[in-house]
Design brief:
370 residues, alpha/beta, Rossmann fold, Alpha-Beta Plaits, 3 domains, four-stranded antiparallel beta sheet, 15% strand
């Protein structure tokens, strides 16, 4: 897309801090000058990055919503929503970073079929339809790359070093008895290195894979996700844990929680992390940059006839009574029977003879009836 779309400076929005770093590294590996912008980067370095964008030394920055607050750079011609926004208000704030000072701007939104719901919410809020963008084909990109390569050759001919290298190539051709065209091709191979100039032609995809079906996406999001899938979807990096005051005793299931959060906020179910159910409450992992206004909205959402009352989880859990294992539990002793003595008590000594024991007093035994 960057090769086919002319741009001045680009602001790419990602969901988490880790995403900004990963995207920036991948773009740098492909030869683009890009830098991440998130809360973990020191303020001095962030200001330096913004100054580089303003001066034209840097053309691409990848930022989170929090780090991009108050960002005002006139050069930004494109805003790319690589991570879909959680709500329409966030989308409006994002695209407001381009088209400033009377300049035109473009906003590009990446969505999966499962995120069709947020697209409808954005269109409803902005009162404008968002037209699908056709990605460039491999043939179109190859044509553009060849045109750029030729233009670079033409620009090099006006360089101050051109005559020096021209004489060197002529000397090389005389020494090895080869034509200058072959020598120029060899120089081009050296400059290109291991990078591939042209992309492989892709076979046409079927219409089914290109469709952005609304009904399929809605049906998928409305389906409760299996408990195993919810556990595996959790990602501790970039996620925060919240507590919900609805638990097993109220009859809640993970699917109820996913449906309530997705229905109230428009967030895709794949961005909802681990869900753990306890007796009187539950916990759910949500992205760390989840908007505060969405949290406030979820506090009054109802699950199983009970408000969620969502709040940041502090990690406190009700203490459980620890029961002793069965082998440690000793059987209760039977109450001792009362003995009644009216005189001297007798007992056997070691030799088996009767021996008078101390006198024991007590109640008299009942008299025998005649």
């Amino acid at each position: 897309m960057l090769e086919s779309e002319p741009y001045d400076a680009i602001l790419i929005f990602a969901r988490t801090k880790m995403d900004t770093v990963e995207i920036a590294e991948k773009m740098q590996d492909r030869g683009y000058g890009a830098a991440p912008l998130n809360g973990d980067i020191p303020q001095i370095q962030r200001e330096r990055i913004i100054e580089q964008v303003k001066s034209g030394k840097l053309n691409i920055i990848i930022a989170t919503d929090v780090a991009a607050r108050g960002l005002d750079v006139e050069r930004i011609s494109h805003v790319v929503n690589f991570g879909a926004p959680f709500d329409p208000e966030t989308y409006v704030h994002r695209i407001g970073r381009t088209g400033r000072a009377g300049r035109s701007g473009e906003a590009i939104l990446f969505l999966s079929p499962r995120e069709k719901r947020i697209l409808r919410l954005i269109e409803k809020t902005t009162r404008q339809p968002i037209e699908p963008m056709q990605l460039p084909s491999a043939a179109a990109i190859n044509k553009k790359r060849v045109a750029i390569f030729k233009q670079n050759l033409k620009n090099a001919m006006s360089s101050d070093k051109f005559n020096f290298f021209k004489n060197m190539i002529e000397e090389f051709c005389r020494e090895h008895e080869i034509d200058s065209l072959s020598a120029a091709a060899a120089v081009a191979c050296i400059l290109q290195g291991n990078r591939q100039l042209l992309l492989a032609e892709e076979k046409g995809r079927s219409k089914k894979t290109q469709e952005f079906s609304r009904s399929k996406a809605d049906n998928y999001e409305s389906r409760p996700k299996p408990r195993r899938e919810l556990d595996e979807a959790a990602n501790e990096v970039g996620m925060l844990r919240y507590r919900i005051e609805v638990g097993k005793s109220h009859g809640v299931l993970p699917g109820h929680i996913v449906g309530a959060i997705a229905g109230e906020t428009g967030i895709s179910s794949r961005h909802i992390g681990k869900i753990k159910l306890f007796n009187d409450f539950s916990t759910v992992d949500l992205p760390e940059d989840f908007p505060e206004q969405m949290i406030e909205k979820l506090k009054t959402a109802v699950i199983c006839q009970k408000q969620m009352q969502i709040s940041p989880d502090t990690g406190s859990r009700p203490a459980r009574k620890r029961e002793k294992p069965e082998q440690d539990q000793q059987p209760a002793k039977a109450p001792a029977k009362k003995k009644f003595f009216t005189g001297k008590a007798m007992r056997k000594d070691k030799k088996g003879k009767d021996k008078v024991r101390e006198k024991v007093t007590g109640k008299k035994p009942p008299k025998k009836r005649r």
